[in-house]
Specification:
- The chain contains 5 helices and no strands.
- The protein is mostly helical.
Amino acid sequence: MNWLWVIVGAAVGAPLRYLTDRAVQARHDSVFPWGTFTVNVVGCLVLGVLTGAVVAGAAPPGLRLLLGTGLCGALTTYSTFSYETLRLVEGGAGLYAAANVAGSVAAGAGAVFAGVWAAGVLWA
């Protein structure tokens, strides 16, 4: 039955990732991959909240599989992040590539910490 939670979460996360990426990127006239940046940071925030809820005992195993493995697994994308960074370098946009790497790591880590903190406030 656990695999069903993962499938349902992924079935929501994958189209959500695609639609969010397209919507965000359409609003920016830049080579910077804002869509992928956004879904990865949002995924980190969701995973942080979920992690905080688990620590507080407020997240049952099914929810962890649904949101953590399924939704966040399909929503976030390390491969697209890497590919887009490579394309920036190949296109001569090395500063954008460096900003993508540094910004993604910093914003992702910040989002996961913020999520854990928010969960601690909610379920303390």
